[in-house]
Design goal:
By secondary structure, the protein is of the alpha/beta class. Helix content is 39%, strand content 12%. The structure holds adenosine monophosphate and zinc ion.
Length: 485
């Protein structure tokens, strides 16, 4: 079957463009700005990686060989994106009385566990910034003579030395410069650090010798260097959160242009995911909200419900975090799992073979529609109702159903062939009752109601509510309880 043409929104041209790899021999080369490992990633950060995982899944599903790099920032990212404040790693180390290296190791492990829980495939390379200090120094030495100047606090990039500085940021409505904090001695407010010197009399936990004195690299440098090291430049796609369109990627582009002495930005497509927003303060850790994936699991929510919540919005739209949205995603996941298990009662191990794409296959039209949706700038919200339609088919041979669902699992990563009703019963951390105890109490409650003993039925309900279990009477999907969010 003919595949749908693949198109993405390119932040550089501010338009939807047809995607073709630069060099089909090399496959598709993708670089994603990774996390700064100084604290638990919050759910917003993880939205960025559900997006890159969807991108990577769609590319592979459509037959491209892919090399995906996701860097780990373990030095250089200051508390402000624009060269002001402390290094986030050093600040976290101080606050927690740990070494910056231990902080990095701990939060890298948390990040990797979060990726696993969300069914995010491990990228091919996950290099750390500290592993390529030599290469960053070589890069800095090459661009320094024509593009940089030295002041007390370090080596700075003169943003007027490259053509079109800030063209990428022009794609956004907010005035970017408002966010740039002043650093004494900079020639222009938007100039940025390539190397930050350790102030005299101070020692940093993470510092290295350089021609400009002991210090640490500026944050933007690592991505220009690692992208070039692992993928070669220009590569096909560079991703990041929409905040990176304003400063970080603008500065990466300036560095890339300085390095190649050309106008090339370093990547053919620049793609940015919009934010997970939290108007109700539900994501705020300090307010006791569900800030992290572990926090969400502790409330009894299966992590793939969060993945499904992300997929229910296109990556370029803002997505509101609320308990209603989360509860709706959990319900939707349960409905999907029940629809699969109705026809395929036991978990199935199967991978996408492409069989269901073939003309004449009973599910071919659903797979073609899936292809249309995700090839249109990763339109996952449009793909989900197609999955519902497929699952609503009553008379499809089991083999065909499995082949079709394997294609959806390959693209959406929802693990529908494997998940069972029991898997979705995540026990909240604070629960004082086991799932079996809940079922027993509910059976007793049903009996009380059958005997019209409503006082006893209400007493059981109140007892369960006190234990963090919401009793659901007459739920159309047949779930009799859910964790209270
Ligand atoms: P950081 O660890 O701060 O470097 O951020 C990791 C990634 O998460 C970056 O690509 C950010 O742009 C992205 N990001 C940060 N906050 C959010 C949010 N609320 N929603 C979506 N992406 C975000
Ligand atoms: Zn980056």
């Amino acid at each position: 079957m003919q595949q749908a043409p693949l198109t993405f929104y390119n932040s550089i041209s501010r338009s939807i463009e047809r995607f073709e790899p630069i060099d089909s021999e090399k496959g598709v080369r993708v670089y994603s700005c990774g996390p700064t490992v100084y604290s638990d990633p919050h759910l917003g950060n993880l939205r960025a990686y559900v997006f890159t995982d969807t991108l990577s899944r769609v590319l592979r599903w459509k037959g491209y060989a892919l090399t995906h790099v996701l860097n780990i920032t373990d030095v250089g990212h200051l508390t402000s994106d624009a060269d002001a404040g402390d290094d986030k790693m050093e600040a976290a180390a101080k606050a927690r009385a740990m070494s910056a290296w231990d902080i990095a190791a701990h939060y890298t492990a948390v990040f990797r566990r979060n990726l696993d829980d969300l069914n995010i495939r491990t990228p091919d390379h996950m290099p750390t910034a500290t592993s390529c200090i030599e290469e960053m120094l070589d890069f800095a030495k090459k661009i320094a003579p024509e593009h940089c100047y030295e002041i007390d606090s370090g080596l700075y990039f003169d943003s007027t030395t490259v053509p079109d500085y800030g063209r990428l940021a022009g794609a956004q409505d907010d005035a970017g410069e408002g966010r740039i904090d002043p650093v004494a001695g900079k020639r222009h407010p938007q100039d940025f650090a390539i190397w930050r010197k350790t102030p005299p009399g101070e020692t940093r936990q993470m510092e290295w010798d350089s021609p400009w004195g002991k210090g640490a690299p500026g944050w933007h440098l690592e991505c220009s260097v690692m992208g070039r090291m692992y993928l070669g430049m220009p590569f096909d796609i560079h991703t990041g959160g929409i905040d990176h369109r304003e400063i970080h990627h603008v500065n990466e582009i300036a560095q890339n242009q300085a390095y190649c002495s050309c106008a090339d930005t370093g990547a053919r497509f620049w793609m940015h995911n919009n934010f997970l927003v939290d108007r109700g303060g539900k994501m705020s850790k300090s307010k006791g909200g569900i800030a992290t994936l572990d926090g969400l699991i502790a409330r009894g929510v299966h992590p793939l419900a969060y993945r499904l919540m992300c997929l229910s919005a296109q990556y370029r739209s803002e997505l509101e975090f609320s308990t209603d949205n989360l509860a709706a995603a959990l319900t939707r996941l349960k409905r999907l799992v029940m629809a699969v298990r109705k026809h395929l009662p036991d978990p199935v191990e199967a991978t996408a073979t492409g069989a269901a794409r073939a003309e004449g296959h009973p599910a071919a039209r659903f797979i073609a529609a899936l292809d249309e949706a995700v090839s249109d700038d990763l339109n996952t919200p449009r793909a989900l109702p197609i999955l519902d339609d497929l699952l609503a088919q009553k008379r499809m041979p089991a083999e065909a159903r499995i082949e079709a669902l394997a294609e959806f699992d390959a693209v959406l990563g929802l693990d529908l062939l494997r998940l069972t009703r029991a898997d979705l019963r995540v026990r909240p951390d604070g629960a004082t009752l086991t799932a079996e105890a809940i079922e027993t109490r509910l059976a007793e409650r049903r009996e009380a109601r059958a005997n019209k003993d409503f006082a006893q039925s209400d007493a059981i309900r109140d007892e369960l509510t006190a234990a963090g279990v919401e009793v659901m009477d007459g739920d159309p999907m047949g779930w009799d309880w859910r964790p209270e969010l």
